Amino acid sequence: MGFHHINSKVGAGSARRSNSRLRRHLQAMKSRKIFGISLSILLINLAAIMERADENLLPSVYKEVSEAFSAGPSDLGYLTFIRNFVQGLSSPLAGVLVIKHDRPTVLAIGTLCWALSTAAVGASQHFLQVALWRAVNGFGLAIVIPALQSFIADSYTDGVRGAGFGFLSLVGSLGGIGGGVLATIMAGHQFGGTPGWRCAFILMAAVSALIGFLVFLFVIDPRKTVGMSHESGKNFDRDELIEKGNASASSVWLESWAATKAVIKVPTFQIIVLQGLVGSLPWTAMVFFTMWFELIGFDHKSTAALLSFFAIGCAMGSFVGGLIADRLTQIYPHSARIMCAQFSAFMGIPFSWFLLKVIPQSVSSYSTFAVTLFLMGLTISWNGTAANGPMFAEVVPAKHRTMIYAFDRAFEGSFSSVAAPLVGILSERMFGYDSTSIDPNKGSPREALALSRGLLSMMAVPFGLCCLFYTPLYKFFWRDRENARMMSSKEEEMI
């Protein structure tokens, strides 16, 4: 009896030590996992910052580019059109690439692509060269943006996804502020005989390339941290990704086609894309804000400050809008996000009218412009974070998320690309804009008035239609969400 008693004590002690080692091992694994996810989200947000900074570079120096290449508003609008149109057409490629590769690799490829094109724009000597490299820039952004959005969708749960998208938009907007302010201020100087706006492009390209390299090295795809079994320590999603990496081209395209059909037939996707076709027009038209303020007579620093007020308002608004939608969803799960989106779209109408029509277009109206731009940004920037991004993540299975964000960008980006040249055409042909009568130092109040009328035409009406087009979601969103949950449950049972 004594011998057996001693053996049982030894066995119990050994089991306790084994359990203790297992707990320490699991705790260490958990700590490494949390650190890896935190580092990944940090680098993803840095990539978002550089993406938005890159987007704001050219609009911030429209006036200087116009002088360097003798280009009018319609020509400048075509540069934005080319980039957005190529971006829209190329966006589905992001959904195809993530089937065969993990998202950090896709993000790194896209980031390096836009970095190269940004540097090339800064070195271009002819307008056609700028147009070509803006097309390449659109291709890079087409790969990056859907992958960024699906990365965030997979990193947060349904109840806080609005805050996740809001924070991504917040830091991205800060990047947009930095890029816009940097380019606008540098545009007024020369560095070693090189115009400041060219130096801004080359500097931004170098930083973007560095961020892309860090993303490739250190970011972990959220799919690799899901499905971790504490008992076996195996990662089934990683095995699935390895299998996809070895898949043939035909199987990748077949899976892409299946994902495409699954996404396009979802009514919620169709409705959000429909509102986005018109809702993105005002935002594309806003690239002329910098030029408009400089035509009024504001110098580079004052213009940069005004646009910073707007960008700060948009940054705060996108984050606050996501938080508000998350909270209201707990009370009104089927309609809260839709109501937030309609409120935000509607607010674009009175603010556009007041900004472009009511405020006297004079440098003495600086304070009024600043307050209006801040409040405008605070209220009209909710749609993507409060509604579109989170709702897309809920109406398709997780494996189709990159594809749904890619096709959203494809439809919206390609259609909204017409807004910028339309502003220029309306300003020149309907409202009398004449680029030859502009004083490079003092601007031109007459041309500023013509440009503001073109802007108002492409902002107030699309905002109203956007608000209206959200209405059918009250009927379809909850149905699509339940269907997606049922499909996900069936797939989990099969696994």
From TrEMBL:
Pfam families: MFS_1. One of its GO terms (cellular component) is membrane. The chain crosses the membrane at residues 33-50, 105-123, 135-153, 165-187, 199-220, 271-293, 305-324, 336-356, 363-382, 455-477. Keywords: Membrane, Transmembrane, Transmembrane helix, Transport. The keyword Transmembrane helix applies. The keyword Membrane applies. It is found in: Membrane. GO terms for molecular function: transmembrane transporter activity. Residues 40-475 form the Major facilitator superfamily (MFS) profile domain. It is a multi-pass membrane protein. PANTHER family: MAJOR FACILITATOR SUPERFAMILY PROTEIN (PTHR23505:SF78), SPINSTER (PTHR23505). Belongs to the major facilitator superfamily. Spinster (TC 2.A.1.49) family. This is Major facilitator superfamily (MFS) profile domain-containing protein. It comes from Rubroshorea leprosula.
